[in-house]
Design brief:
The chain has 299 residues and is mostly helical. The chain has a domain of 76 residues. α7 runs antiparallel to α8. It is globular. The protein starts with a helix and ends in a 13-residue tail after the last helix. The relative contact order is 0.06. This is Putative pentatricopeptide. It comes from Rosa chinensis.
Length: 299
């Protein structure tokens, strides 16, 4: 689809800011960030003034690439060209700095605009960014400030909050926040929230509770959740639940190599050397692959 859109775009006799912005957004959303930035350079060279929608896509592309130098340039471009700073653009700037490794600059931008915000997007960006960098206490402190304001929270807010709890081992706090989603804020947890809770409980050694959490989910667990449970079982030596987790993981992804490694380690720790060796041989014969990690843009 994006290739067809590109052909149509190139055939257009005239292009306005909306057509340029749509094409740049298309590249960003299909994870072709370099093409998005190249097209933005073409746009700027053609004399078309970008707007805040254009710059959100540009900043998202830069965040994906993690190129701080380009991010600083884009931020300066916004200021120098007096592009209006709405909440989405502010969130994109904060998110970009966080994902490019400059969390202090992200915080500085947030503090400059926090009292001007009318939506939760910039708050989500800094809460998630701080959690990503391991600054759980500050992330939760900003969340507490947000709770006192007349701003509607959403599901992304709680991904950041639960991630912060997970990184700092705040199990009871995480459980309270998770319950408050439905009971206080009327937000239905999705699979990512359940994944955070499984990770939080598993890291704390509460493997049985993590397994119960999976059983209580209104949706089917995915590879990430079963893998998280298996990793916790390996860390804390729970062979019974570990075997169950691996079985479910293999049903979803038979070639998931990381699960075979974890299961082999778990069996070896339990003294089941022959079974551990068999797991390794199976992995080598099938040449199983590791699943790559990923990071979502969260606002």
């Amino acid at each position: 689809m994006i290739d067809q859109a590109s052909l149509l775009f190139d055939e257009m006799p005239e292009r306005d800011v909306f057509s340029w912005s749509s094409m740049i957004s298309g590249y960003t959303q299909t994870e072709q960030s370099k093409l998005a930035l190249e097209l933005f350079q073409r746009m700027a060279s053609s004399g078309i003034q970008p707007n805040e929608i254009t710059m959100v896509s540009v900043l998202s592309a830069i965040a994906d690439l993690g190129t701080l130098k380009e991010g600083i340039w884009a931020h300066e471009y916004i200021c120098e060209n007096s592009i209006p700073l709405n909440d989405n653009l502010s969130a994109a700037i904060i998110d970009m700095y966080a994902k490019c490794g400059s969390i202090n600059t992200a915080l500085k931008v947030f503090y400059q605009i926090q009292d001007k915000t009318s939506s939760v997007s910039p708050w989500n960006a800094i809460i998630c960014g701080l959690a990503l960098h391991g600054h759980a206490a500050m992330s939760l402190e900003i969340f507490s400030d947000l709770q006192r304001r007349d701003i509607k929270l959403n599901s992304i807010t709680f991904i950041g909050v639960l991630s912060a709890c997970c990184h700092s081992g705040l199990v009871e706090a995480g459980e309270r926040y998770f319950k408050s989603m439905k009971n206080v804020y009327h937000i239905q947890p999705n699979i990512k929230h359940y994944g955070c809770m499984v990770d939080l409980l598993g890291r704390a050694g509460r493997v049985e509770d993590a397994e119960k959490m999976i059983r209580s989910m209104p949706m089917k667990a995915d590879v990430v959740i079963w893998g998280t449970l298996l990793a916790a079982c390996t860390t804390h030596g729970n062979l019974e639940i570990g075997e169950m987790a691996e079985k479910n993981l293999k049903l979803l992804d038979p070639s998931h190599g990381a699960s075979t490694v974890l299961m082999s380690n778990l069996l070896a720790d339990a003294g089941k050397w022959e079974e551990a060796s068999l797991e390794r041989r199976v992995m080598q014969s099938l040449r199983l692959t590791r699943s790559p990690g990923h990071s979502d843009v969260v606002w």
